[in-house]
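**User:** My hope is that you can spare some time for a protein that puzzles me. I have put the entry right below:
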Amino acid sequence: MRWRTFLWLLPVLMIGVAPWEVRAQSSLDPGQLPKSTVFYLAWHGTPAGDARKANSLLALWDDSDFTPVRAAIIEEMVSDSTAAKKTQTAITREELAQYASLLDNEFVVGYLGDSNAAKSVELDSAGGKWNGMFLVYDRTGKETTLTKLLVQMRKNEKDPPEISATSIAGIPAIKVVRKTGTSYWAEDGSYAFTASDPAVFAQVGAWARHTAPADGGLAQTAEYREASDLLKGGMIELFFRFSSIKEIAPDSNAGGFRLRSLLRGLRLETVHSIAGHLAIDGARTRMQGAILGDALSGTLFDIWDAGTDAPPASMKFVNANTVSYQTSRINLVGIYELIKRALRSSVGDGQSSPAEAVDTMAKVRLGMPLSDALGLFSGEFATLQSSPTLDPAKQVYMMGIRKKPETLKMLRTGLGDYLAGEQTEGDTTYLKVSEGGIHNDAGTASWKYQYLAVTPDAIVYSNRRETVRELLATRKSASDSTVALPLTWQAARDQFPKTINGLSFLDLQKVDWTAVKERWNAESRKASNGARTSRKMPQGALSSALEQLPPQVFQRHLHLTASGSWKDAQGVHVDGWIE
């Protein structure tokens, strides 16, 4: 029972299933999992009929032109890449469709921590090393298809496993021993479930039988209750109990480096969980999630900037030709101080912190303390793409700055011999920077460059000089406060909170999908030809299907992706969709 392969197969097929009616209520309630649950991913199903047809992403998947890609994805996942291809049994299109239909039913995959309750079950696996992974699948009406898939996987295995019957916590099970480890599989009533540890198997078996734990289960934990609003109404829900990291971290002290002390220095207790869900919302496929906790100063939440309600500085570079735009703000000084505190706590008394050596090297290299250098940046990082073909040469990157003269001085000192040219025009200074080359007394011989433009509030850079200049030619002046967003982008922006620290758009209707496909195929062939210099590399089913895919299928269904992020006292939140 190659349950790991089955596990990887399911998420890939999540949207590639035949229409079905969503259950009024999930029969697998993750809230009743044991309190020791570290994380879980639950799949609950998709809508049927008109609701499915109205969704852009599902309509793309259901499009007849996309059929070869659907089949290729399933074939790639079912086939065992470690087995000799000539020994594998060919899979028919009808069989692939049957396997895809397994997603008619729900499943939950997750990991249980090594709690005292788990240790009460006698282990019969060699070594006793804890492995909390599990999978539970509702096989109702899919018993024959599931068995057929497992047999297919077994045939394609290079090294057949050893199989024997056993019983765990009163549940008849199959023990499967491979070179990579041991797992247990059972089909009990409506459910099939598997785990690598007998203790985990016993607990998920009881959960699948809807036997409520005596302590009330995961739903009674503070982390789950805090995240409950993010775990409702989706096709998929995800929950990760972040506080469990410090419970499973080894108390190592190799070379004087104390891991648990490091984790305490990061104040992990202030981060409670990561939670979210994916849901169908009309034409949109929407994802909402958060890192929840106590967003206090001096904690991991210092990574993210508090955000602003003013338009990001990079927004002045957005114009009518912009295909994609992404901006985010992080707290560079806060990250640096957090790392320093954590590293200081990880060494013993009287020992020098690694952060002190970094400070010394930075001061020598940059001519100023690292904290001062980081303070020259606003923390905003942005990317813009103006090419309908998504040409990497047209990709532009931007970093926000606060003081141009000081920033230029630091760049000149830090780049040293890599600075190959400098020119000032108006309020903008252009730098030509070598990516590498041969250094000697005569200088540096280089053949690849990055081109930087330092403006009063930003560093704009690309690997093409013309790309940088084209973008700067379209920027709005500092006195122009007009928000430079297309109407559809602005409508999406208005759905996020006023104060944000991240924003992203991709106009899929502006993409020239035919040209993108041609370029992708050319690059794929070039890479493949390079790999064949020593031996022949066969082309996979998925690559072949993508090469034959009519590019218009994307234009028919996909319009826009948008997302926003923000930080508040409860944590960092993200909301986004594709339509």
Remarks:
- Residues 3-220 form one domain.
